[in-house]
Amino acid sequence: MKLTVVPEVQPWYQDGLRFTCTQCGNCCTGGPGYIWITDDEIQRLASYLKLSAEETVRRYCRNVSGRFSLKEKLREGLHDCIFLQEAEVASADGKGRTKKLVCSVYPVRPLQCRTWPFWEGNLVSQENWQRAGGRCPGLGKGKLHGCKQIEAIRDAEDWP
Ligand code: SF4
Ligand code: SF4
Questions:
Q1: Atom of ligand 1 nearest to the CA of 84
Q2: pLDDT score of 57
Q3: Which residue has the higher pLDDT, 26 or 8?
Q4: What average pLDDT score do residues 62-73 get?
């Protein structure tokens, strides 16, 4: 029997993709959605907040068909993640201070937040990637991520 060797199809992002977060906060707000969080991540979040896991769930999570998602809060018609909070940061020109919405639990944010924008749905096609860039100014800018690195982030099941 003669075996046919099927050539490996290279993904459209084989030369890598650029992304550096500008910390604009756009991906932490918008229409209603889900920010999935696992039991392990709830434990890490609870330790960071110095709360019990039960209290963390009660205050910050909602049960969606047996899975937990972070709660959202309404602000000017937008659904902010419960942890998106106003903070004073250095202004862009470095000469003063300005107010900005930032993640208040950044070191323990869930995997879903850590792996953006290298989500499967965004990587399926260049069109999807560009569409995601409409809301995320960090896409296509800054650090070049190699193909293998992109796929490792896409397929991650837990924090690195
Ligand atoms: S946990 Fe932090 S990074 Fe994730 S959506 Fe909420 S505010 Fe944004
Ligand atoms: S939308 Fe993009 S650039 Fe803005 S905070 Fe989210 S990941 Fe960073």
A1: 7
A2: 98
A3: 26
A4: 97
Pocket probe for ligand 2: among 27, 114, 153, the residue whose CB has the most ligand atoms within 8 Å is 27
Tell the residue number behind the tokens 């920010």, with chain if given: 35
Output the CA–CA distances (angstroms, integers) from residue 149 to 75, 115, 143, 156, 158, in the order listed.
Answer: 36, 11, 12, 10, 15
Buried b (16+ CB within 10 A) or exposed e, 52-74: eeeebbeebbeeeeeebbbebee
| Residue 8 CA, ligand 2 centroid: distance in Å | 33
Question: What spacing in Å lies between the alpha carbon of 5 and ligand 1's midpoint?
Answer: 45
Quote the ligand 2 centre to 81 CA distance (angstroms).
Answer: 13
Question: Rounded to an integer, what distance in angstroms lies between the CA atom of residue 54 and that of residue 60?
Answer: 10
pTM for this prediction: 0.90
> Which tokens in the block code for residue 154?
């896409």
